[in-house]
Every structure is written in C-alpha cells, then in structure tokens.
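May I ask you for just one protein sequence along with its backbone structure tokens in two labelled lines?

_____
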Amino acid sequence: MSHKSDIEIARAAKKRPIGEIGDKLGIPSDHLLPYGHDKAKISQDFINSVEDRPDGKLILVTAINPTPAGEGKTTTTVGLGDGLNRIGKKAMICIREASLGPNFGMKGGAAGGGYAQVVPMEDMNLHFTGDFHAITSAHNLLSAMIDNHIYWGNELGIDERRVTWRRVVDLNDRALRDVVTSLGGVANGFPRQTGFDITVASEVMAILCLARDLADLERRLGDIIVAYTRDRDPITCRDVGAEGAMTVLLKDAMQPNLVQTLENNPAFVHGGPFANIAHGCNSLIATRTALKLADYVVTEAGFGADLGAEKFMNIKCRKGGLAPAAVVLVATVRAMKMNGGVAKADLGAENVDAVKAGCPNLGRHIENLKGFGVPVVVAINHFVTDTDAEVQAVKDYVAEHGTEAILCQHWANGGEGTVELATRVAEIADAGMASFAPLYGDELSLFEKIEAVAKRIYRADEVLADKKIRDQLRAWEAAGYGNLPVCMAKTQYSFTTDPTRRGAPTGHSVPVREVRLSAGAGFVVVICGEIMTMPGLPSKPAALTIGLDDNGDVQGLF
C-alpha cells in the first residue's frame, strides 16, 4: 500500500486564511502582520497587551536518542496539539523554524509528518518569513564591523589573534569551518584565521530565542563578547557599536510567526537553535505569548531528552520563569529494535527480544526527566510494521518504570490518533502533579555544572578537561559569569560522546574540547567530543533530489 508523501499531504491541505486562525486566539486583525494568506507575525503591542493574563499549562514533548529508524518528535508535538483541540481543549503548538542545513543535508524539515503537520510546509522549510536570514545578516554585520574597526586604526586595541566572533551561514559547509580572511594586501585588511558556524549555532539566534522584548534583545546583543585585548580584557559588541544596527535588522524577526496545522489549529513557529550545538528550543517570546492565549501549550525540545529537554529545563525554563506541567517522551518500536542491535534493513520483522534489549535507552530518559520533578508519559509513535507483541513489550517496560506508554497513530490519523494521549496529558496537567526544579543551582561552579549534566544525565564517570579549559572557566567566574548555566554541545545519537554507542551506557568519560562564553545569551557553551558547530553534507545530500516539477512545484522536500 502506497502512502502520500509529507509534501503531497501538505499541498492538499485545506488551509484557512491566517486571520481566522488569529481569531481563534483572540488576536485582532490589525495586530497580525500577514506574509501572504497563510502566515503572519504577531505585533509586539499585542504581545505586551496580554502579559497580565494567567498562564496556561506548558507541555514539553521530547524523545529518546534519535536513530536512523526515526522517532517523530515534531510529528507527535503537532499530533498532540491537534488531539487536545479535538477533545475540546483550547490548545496551541510552539515549535522551531527549520534550518536550510538539514533540509538540504540529511535530516530533512521540521514541520511534522503525515497527517500531523504544520503548514505551509514548503515555506516553513525554505525561507519562511526571513527570520534566519535576518539573524545571519545581523551576526555577520557584527563580524564586518569588528574587522572594519581593526582596519581603521583599532582604537579598542583588539588583539587580532583573539577575535572570538566567527561568521555564520545557514547551510552545511565543512569547507568553511576554518578559513583565513582579509588576504589580498593592505586594502583588504589584516589577514587572520577564523571560521564559520551554522546560523542555528549563532549566539544571535540564542539571544533572539531568549529575549523578552526588543529592549532586552538590544541589551543582550550589546553584552556579546567578540574579542579580547592583548591584556585579555574583553571587547563587547557594545564596544564596537553594532548592537543598535543589529536590533534594527532583527526587529521583525523578533515577532513570533503564526501558522496552522492540517486541522487548522494555531501554531507559533519561531526561532531554531540546534540542540546538539545550541540550546534547542523555540523562542521564549513565542512560548510565553502562547501561554497567555491558550489553556494548553505543546512545545518541543530538539533531539533526545539528554540534550533538548535538559537545556529546556536548565536554560529556557530558568531564564524564562517557565515550569512544564507534563512531559511526553516519544519513542518508536523501530528505534527500540535498533537500540537492541537490529540493522535498519531488518526492522520490519517482529523481534520482541530486540525491543526489550533496546528499552534501557528509553528507561534512562524516563529516569532523567523524572529527576526534574515533572510527570512523564511515553508516546509510542506507531509504524505500520509494529506488532501487538512489540508494542506491549514497550508498555510493560514503561510500566515497570512507574509511568505509562500510550500508542499514538497521529501520522496516519492526525488528531484522532492522539485522543487517548491528549486526554491523559490534560488530566496530568490539570492535576498539578509537577514540582519542577532545574538540575543544578546557579551557585555551583561552571565545572560543577558540567559535571552535574555529565554524571546525572549522561551517567558518565568523569569529565575530562585540561588545565587550559579549567583555567578559562575560573577566569569567567572571576569576571562575574559563574552563575550562568551550561549549554552542552554533544552528539545527539548517544548518551556518550561516541555517536555509535546506543542504549544506556555507563562507565564512560565526557571529554571537553572547548568552552565558549555566550555572555549575551547568558550561558557557557561546552563543546564535547568531536561535535562540530558547522556540519558537513553527507555523501548523498537531500539537495540532490530537490527541485521543481513541470508545474513549478517543489519536489523532494521531506
């Protein structure tokens, strides 16, 4: 039996005018800034006008460590939002925008799948409302102004060897990881070694996603440390004088984007930091606004719970004063079998023993999430090859860990396929069972915070960091940054820094390769193992199959 592709389903959607979606949330038309007929930005004036309203219930959707078998976290987020609306709840969805890097690389888009999607899918996975382009431009404007300042006499005394601000582009391009700029003689400036990161790893992206309003955005941009003098004194964006112009470039990008699901329910899609190299959550302003407009807000955190959910709890909730009422942990039978040692080509055959062997990865995530004081429900994202015995094996395992697993069929049936999950999640949220607390306190040293994540979330025995890194952390503490949380940059495929180690390993070490201070965003990035802040394309990137058909329609996006 053949199924329609995600893009075919999205293209056949019966979308409502975006003004009608705004009406569902009580947003007047004069506070919607339309981008065509099916997407719009929300004005800052309207956001300010609802600040005194009580908050709805916040529900986080996260997942096990991703595998090539697929988990469907965004699909479940959308399906749960539709399911809550289907049972009569006023609910909306908050997810991240898609980066062009994975769209043309290997992972694909970020709009859900099957009959649990947010539309317009093609726009969302390409240029959308231009937010990422604005972030890229603002980031690189700062880069240009740093080099220009050095060229015109270097009044600030910037040490060209200690310019820490790299450029960004929203594509996977390994050739740009390490580059030399300003070659070509005196007219082109002073040559120096630098590099590019992907836009979703930019501190500007993180700042936009954590800022409360434009004034907070400009303040945070000004706090960015871009370089050091020969005496190791920090040079900020404010010293260079770039924060005002950057804020102008980001003025529209700061406003959340309103779109709709296939079932015409409202969704904010705003911001998009990766979770393996950044903090992995949609914007704080979108989430906080949604909580004022709906009784239930379903949001997601990137990749597995060891990355996205950990940062959601320890960074976004800490910075934004948020507290989730419940967590939905997504898993698939296929992924359990792959964690149990089954090759991708053999996942279609029933193998209950392999399911059981792979479940410890799921169990580890359940234990970790409960450690934040939040009730957890497991959503089994159904595939047609799943057998009753395999599904039951997952349910039995989850029950042994003191929670419940619910089979969800939203990919095939949309909101109807998540009615049971939605009903249970609403019951848990309404019961007020959560007693949320971050993993560590602000008062711990930066290295102690790194150890807390490594030992309590990854279950490592130790953190390996040489003297240079430890000295750098102590220097930042002495400069007043010791109260910041840490943002771990690590492979998403494993609890360890080795992407090939599946399951729930123990007895491993976490090597720290580099630390970066994101003073504007308000956290310290800890780069572990071989993780790259500029990904490369695979041997056969998705871009090879993306194009236009004879009708001018996009083909190959997924």
About this structure: The chain has a mean pLDDT of 95. The longest strand covers residues 509-518.
